[in-house]
Amino acid sequence: MSRSRVTGAEGMETTYGFESVGGASEKQARVNEVFHRVAERYDLMNDLMSGGLHRIWKSAMVSWLAPSKRPGWRFVDVAGGTGDIAFRIVEASGGAATGTVLDINGSMLAVGAERAEKRKLSDNLTFVEGNAEKLDLPDGVFDAYTIAFGIRNVPRIDLALAEAFRVLKPGGRFLCLEFSEVDLPVLDKLYEAWSFKAIPAIGKVVAGDRESYEYLVESIRRFPNQANFETAIRQAGFERVTHRNLSGGIAAMHSGWKL
Q: d(Cα 122, Cα 102) in Å, to the nearest integer?
């Protein structure tokens, strides 16, 4: 058991929170079960994890992406089953963008498809069950690849990054939003206390599920920091790699280009 951050993309393959697991398949099965349990309460989960700030962060991500308003602009949103990012992208494009929302978890996708229907965005979006490590998508077809609060749950992050590079067009952009390492001395202690003491307890009371929230908090603590994750993105082939911290580094947006 380790509480230390991993230093590379490959380091998450055998970690389930602070636990060590036998390999990628065991981790994936356990992560799937977490998200089956929280699918109907996904917004609540993110509100608890971020103090409600995830909505602002997601809007900031889409603003930085600046989706094109030209017809034919395509994106894939991975680990985006409930549609939060995809809806924002389509709306920011003035309805011009079309997207594939891909998630390994059918429960999450069902929530997203229902929400898309209610928002009258079903014509713009296709919901696909699939694995970020091996996308059943052709080479070089998307203008953008987005993933929000999902990549730390992928066992083999290096494979997911390689797949992101593969499915993007030349000139396409990778954009990831993920919880990260707080870089403010006082805030880091406050956030640590909130994460490990308050969030699991609130999860138990509000959602009746302490275990899932403990895993999610621990997975944040184990995920590579901003500099190490940037290195992993570059190793996948991306250029002009950079990041922007949000709320003192509680979350960070990572950008890279396929040039």
A: 14
